[in-house]
Specification:
With 150 residues, the protein is mainly alpha-helical. It contains 6 helices and 2 strands.
């Protein structure tokens, strides 16, 4: 069973994305665009470089996504005062009702996914998955910053 945990987590995330896309199809927003909007709701004013790293997408992919959302009036760009080549991103008022709807759809989907789990099991599941995420985040940071020889 332990060998399959990565597959189970990946497959569950895939199903979650697919279902969220289906539930939000009418809005025209994909799961990746939803992640972008949700990230900006928590980190407004972030620049495109940090956002691309968070979303794990290439800058050109992010740029196209931002163009579509800006054209739809969902977000705006301002020059990054620390890096003239970069843009800082801000949500527009038009995006706020959509973000509320997306949060509600995500919460409802999470409830569906956790159907049949007790409150204690839900809490334990969240704690265990968070611990795994932290372990992998530390491992990724270690790989990015190898030790230097003295």
């Amino acid at each position: 069973m332990s060998e399959a945990i990565g597959f189970l987590i990946h497959d569950t995330a895939r199903l979650f994305r697919r279902e969220l896309n289906e539930r939000m199809r009418h809005s025209g927003v994909t799961a990746l665009q939803w992640r972008l909007l949700a990230y900006l709701a928590r980190n407004e004013g972030t620049n495109q470089i940090k956002l691309a790293e968070f979303l794990e997408v290439e800058p050109i992919t992010l740029s196209r996504m931002i163009d579509r959302l800006a054209d739809a009036g969902m977000l705006s760009r301002q020059r990054d005062p620390d890096d003239r080549r970069a843009w800082c991103l801000y949500l527009e008022a038009k995006s706020l009702p959509l973000i509320d709807e997306l949060r509600a759809a995500s919460a409802n989907l999470t409830e569906t996914a956790q159907d049949g789990l007790s409150a204690d099991e839900r809490e334990q599941l969240a704690e265990l998955v968070e611990r795994m995420r932290q372990n992998l985040s530390r491992k990724a940071a270690d790989v990015k910053q190898p030790e230097r020889a003295a």
